[in-house]
Write a structure and sequence with these properties.
Elements: E1 2-6, H1 13-22, E2 26-30, H2 37-40, E3 46-50, H3 56-69, E4 73-76, H4 81-92
Parallel strand pairs: 1-2, 1-3, 3-4
């Protein structure tokens, strides 16, 4: 399973990737927008939006791509490791 995480803290990118790896998932993390995110998202099985730490522009771009490619979107207000753990438990169970 592949996961794309949009938002979150830059310091926690490695931690997000390790949590996903623990559930057997490959993760791409976009903590900040660098270039055209639309082309880099790809076709993941799940898109996670950390809404508290992301710009509206990034949210709109990610949601637009998710709709276009029929990707399920999970929105979470907090960007903590435990929040990601809970999301992964829910979607990987």
């Amino acid at each position: 399973m592949s996961v794309v995480i949009v938002g979150g803290n830059e310091r926690m990118v490695c931690q997000y990737e390790n949590i996903c790896k623990g559930y057997g998932c490959k993760a791409k993390v976009f903590a900040k927008e660098k270039g055209t995110m639309k082309k880099k998202i790809g076709a993941p099985d799940l898109l996670i939006l950390f809404t508290n730490t992301v710009s509206h522009k990034m949210v709109n771009c990610a949601v637009e791509e998710a709709k276009r490619k029929s990707i399920p979107v999970c929105r979470c207000h907090t960007s903590s490791a435990s929040a990601l753990e809970n999301i992964m438990k829910e979607y990987c169970a």
